[in-house]
Write a structure and sequence with these properties.
alpha/beta, Rossmann fold, DNA polymerase, domain 1, six-stranded parallel beta sheet, 8 strands, 12% strand
Length: 220
């Protein structure tokens, strides 16, 4: 699979951010006098941006604040204060990024997370250096699963759809890739809501160690 551009989702693909997201969600819920959610519950809510994450958490605790926007602001205040306290890079991700970069393959991130926090997380975890471009949830007037986010990246790199690849972990990523006619690779360790067999993909990987060879980069 010779590849001219590899685009990565962030949460659930490159990083396991669920513990920090859950901590911020639970701090927000505590402000409304609600009981916390388990990390696994929050993990299933991730992938569609902040607004839906907060809305799902509020609904799970039957909480109806008078000003929903304030709940989002509360969540973001808590999250930005400790966005990488518990977040980790998935095993082998940095090594795979290094191998692809060394082979001269351009890399990008496409996430629904806000740009400011995305930039801070990539920098804090030592991943920013690998990416030529980052498209976040507020970078464009649209976001995943709208395929235009991928098409914008393809245009920026002058890359053909068939020579590009989206690496993600969820149904949202699969739908985005399908809409843009870009091949999709699923990381099994992520935040998907259904079974692997139900998510259309070119390949489903157990670990990042499998990725370089899949895109035509020799593994030493």
């Amino acid at each position: 699979m010779p590849t001219a551009l590899v685009i990565f989702d962030l949460d659930g693909t490159l990083i396991d951010s669920a513990p920090d997201l859950a901590a911020a969600i639970n701090a927000m819920l505590a402000g409304y006098g609600r009981e916390p959610l388990a990390v696994q519950e929050v993990r299933r809510m991730v992938g569609d941006g902040v607004a839906l994450l907060v809305a799902r958490a509020l609904a799970a605790r039957d909480c109806r604040p008078a000003e929903p926007a304030e709940a989002e602001r509360s969540f973001m205040r808590h999250y930005e204060s400790a966005a990488t306290a518990l977040t980790t890079v998935f095993p082998g991700a940095a090594q795979a990024l290094q191998a692809l970069s060394a082979a001269g393959i351009p890399l990008a991130v496409c996430t629904n997370k806000p740009a400011r926090i995305t930039s801070a997380i990539l920098g804090s975890l030592g991943l920013a250096k690998y990416f030529a471009r980052v498209v976040a949830g507020d970078s464009l007037p649209f976001r995943k699963p709208d395929p235009r986010v991928l098409l914008a990246l393809l245009e920026a790199f002058a890359a053909a759809r068939q020579d590009s690849l989206l690496v993600g972990d969820s149904e949202v990523d699969a739908a985005t890739a399908s809409g843009a006619a870009v091949p999709f690779v699923l990381m099994k360790h992520g935040y998907r809501r259904g079974a692997v067999a139900e998510i259309p993909c070119r390949a489903a990987l157990e670990s990042f160690a499998e990725l370089p060879a899949l895109v035509g980069v020799p593994v030493a």
